[in-house]
User: What shape does this take?
Amino acid sequence: MFTETPLIRRKLRNEFAAKCVFGLMALAMVIPLLVIVGYLFWKAFPLLSWDFLVTNPTNGMRKGGIWSAFLGTLYLVGISLCISAPIGVLAAVYLNEYARENWFTRIINLAVVNLAGVPSIVHALFGLGAFVLFAGMGRSIIAASLTLSIMTLPVIIASTKEALSAVPISFREACWNVGASRWQTIRHIVLPNSISGILTGVILQVSRTAGETAPIMFTGAVFFKKISEGNLFAYNLKDQCMALSMHLYTVTTQVTEAPAALPYAIATVLVVTVLAVNALSIGLRVYLRSRKKW
Amino acid sequence: MLMEPGKKIEVRDLRLAYGAKEVIHGISFDAYRNEILGIIGPAQSGKTSLLRCFNRTIEFTPNVTVSGVIKVDGQEVSRVRNVYELRRKIGMVAPLPVGLPLSIYDNVAFAPRTAGMRAKSDLEGLVEKCLRQAALWDEVKDRLDSLGTKLSGGQQQRLTIARALSHQPEILCLDEFSIAIDPVTTMRIEDVLKELKKEMTIILVTNLVQQARRLAARTMFLWKGEIIEIGPTEVIFSDKPANRKTYEYVNGIFG
Assistant: This one.
């Protein structure tokens, strides 16, 4: 009984090896993040200051800060999410909770999957045609935000559907059996138990929107713009704006004799902003999950 | 429409198909007021589908076609406009206990609330009554605000029964309620059912033929979507039921 045969020893050895390999791979995910953030900070250090954040670029972007680009990114991300999050979540609720399986919903689902796979430069051209030219918005924050929301919409729909379908079907059946309507079931059971997953999916889109350059280049972002410093409402929806991602591109490729630390400082601000939003999302997720009830 | 006295549910020539596959082949039977009608039969004989036709939750399954007539209190269910009221008239208990991710209190108060009951005193009274009826009150009365999903399996099944009673149904359908719970709890619930019979019609779908024998006044043997035999329980379980198959199934020599 319970003797250690060679077979068992091999099994244990394999078990240990598998655990090590998988663990190392998981660890490998963390290393690039730490290296990137550390390297950025190290390179950007001479320039980082509060003034850098809240002053406009000057001297052909060689001096000054990044205020107009930073605020522009906040506007683009904020407005595009305000458009795509409600539409995406509501559409996903419809697709997951109401729609029956027929040719119509199959087409919608197919569209969602395929739209999620369209390259961002194609979205940019669509935005240029649809919003800037056809709808007559011109190159503006609103046109760029709409383009970004078209881009994030399918991903939000997909992630929301995922979160909704994680709520067991038996909960819904129990509600229907006692005479609750679909909406009452969604309102009282499905949404409260999927909200953490829905929010996570939405907030993850922040990092994507903040980093995109192509869709805003044609539709509303400019190389340089001066706005009133430190004023959070300095942009108008009809204005064109600067954006961090595009500013980074400009400074590295178009501006000669820029200080060496400048691109790194811009990248640092971009990364830290995105990480801050993600940290917020993690906090929210932990809080909401602690209230999850099964 | 005149209602025949005593008949609570009438089923006439009910056919049900999932896609092209017919699973109920035109069955007809009645269920009377204040009786327990046992439905026995092996898996895949259409028992659960039948129950889901009563309260029309079958409509949530895609590609289902139902034909024939089901009347509850003389009213044809397929013509009912207020399907939510129909569903509140019928309490449903599923094979596996489902505690909604709410507190014990809210689990039971959910149905009356969705029906518009708001007054706290009404709700509290109703919750206590239902939990008592389901033989759960004594175990949970001190922790009504803890989660229903944290109860044990047997307690959750009784919570499910309490929830099914919370909308004050006139018909109670139990679908193999005892497969996930221990024998002691099963016996307690069976006692509860004998009490509830005085107030409502009970349809008891069960895999345990002895359970039907203990509880049901009449028993129906459903096999592959057809009624093999329906009649008084003592006939079904006697040595000479009308159909040989019934005898074989009940005595476990079914091949």
In short: The first strand of chain B starts at residue 7 and ends at 18. Residues 7-250 of chain B form a domain with the Rossmann fold fold (CATH 3.40.50.300). The mean pLDDT of chain B is 88. Residues 120-133 of chain B form the longest helix (14 residues).
